[in-house]
Design a protein that fits this description.
This protein has about 260 residues and is of the alpha+beta class. The protein has a single domain, classed as outer membrane lipoprotein receptor (LolB), chain A (Clam). The protein is built from six helices and twelve strands. The chain has helices at about 15-20, 25-30, 75-85, 135-140, 170-175, 250-255; strands at about 30-40, 50-60, 65-70, 100-105, 105-110, 115-120, 150-155, 160-165, 195-200, 205-210, 220-230, 245. Strands 7-8-9-10-11-1-2-3-4-5-6-12 form a twelve-stranded mixed β-sheet. The longest helix is centred in the first third of the chain and has 13 residues, at about 75-85. It starts with 15 loop residues before the first helix and ends in an 8-residue tail after the last helix.
Length: about 260
């Protein structure tokens, strides 16, 4: 006769609200990752023309280096280039090619031709701006508990679970040492920004989409989307030396001289 062993005690599954509450911290703990960012209209799932930039990120150092679309997204860049060509004003070779950006906390460095320029619209040690490709990860630190499980999905070949929720930017600001920047809009809307998140088995975010301006007209509502993969890869991001940086006007004049001024 077999012994009468008690039934094994199974670990209780993690509540989905807790899973989302810790997702930003778990993702940051991965250290580094490859990065893709997009701005998509009407859907949190970006398409190819919605791509803004792609590169690598040092999540703990709050740095990223990316290849950035010239005109906001690849789709808008292509449309602008086509319009110039039709008007007989085509850009010089390379004029519409993606350029290199380094995001370093609240500062962004932009390579313009052979030179660098920079923009620090706020305290350089402060929060990232909403146009930073990693801003959705900051927003996720304010995950509310109104989470809906939308079922399994796959992001870049990795099994994930898709969730819908809202994020509270005041909560995110309290959770992050540097705080979080906020988009424009009524204050109360910033406590319940619509978001969708795809988490892998380890609870790390593989895609984060935040509707940063929900009060805008429906046709103009843009999702800010970030995708992360290849966690833990070797990354070394060094911002340009201050001696290499030109004022924006000087850098752009050097890269795109006015033909009339050369006559």
């Amino acid at each position: 006769m077999l012994p009468n062993y008690p039934d094994p005690v199974l670990a209780a599954p993690e509540p989905i609200a807790d899973r989302l509450a810790t997702a930003a911290a778990r993702t940051l703990a991965a250290g580094t990752a490859r990065l893709f960012a997009a701005w998509s209209t009407g859907s949190p799932i970006p398409e190819s023309p919605d791509r803004r930039c792609e590169g690598v990120a040092d999540l703990k150092a709050r740095r990223a280096v990316v290849s950035q679309a010239v005109m906001f997204t690849d789709g808008l860049t292509q449309r602008f280039a086509t319009e110039l060509e039709q008007a007989g004003k085509a850009e010089e070779p390379g004029g519409m090619e993606p350029h290199e950006n380094v995001y370093d906390g609240a500062t962004v460095y932009i390579r313009v031709g052979r030179h660098w320029t920079s923009f620090a619209l706020t305290d350089p040690a402060g929060p990232r701006e909403p146009n930073d490709p990693l801003w959705p990860l900051d927003a996720l630190a304010g995950a509310n508990q109104d989470v809906t499980d939308l079922g399994p999905d796959t992001i870049r070949g990795v099994p994930t679970t898709h969730y819908r929720l809202t994020v509270d930017l005041a909560r995110a600001d309290a959770a992050l040492p540097a705080g979080v920047s906020v988009p424009s809009g009524p204050y109360r809307s910033l406590s319940r920004l619509p978001a969708e998140v795809w988490l892998d088995e380890a609870g790390r975010a593989r895609r984060i989409a935040v509707l940063s301006e929900p009060m805008a007209p429906a046709a103009n509502r843009i999702w800010s989307v970030t995708e992360l993969w290849d966690f833990g890869l070797a990354v070394d991001i060094t911002p340009p030396d201050p001696a290499e940086i030109l004022a924006p006007a000087t850098a752009y004049r050097a890269a795109y001289p006015d033909p009339a001024s050369e006559q």
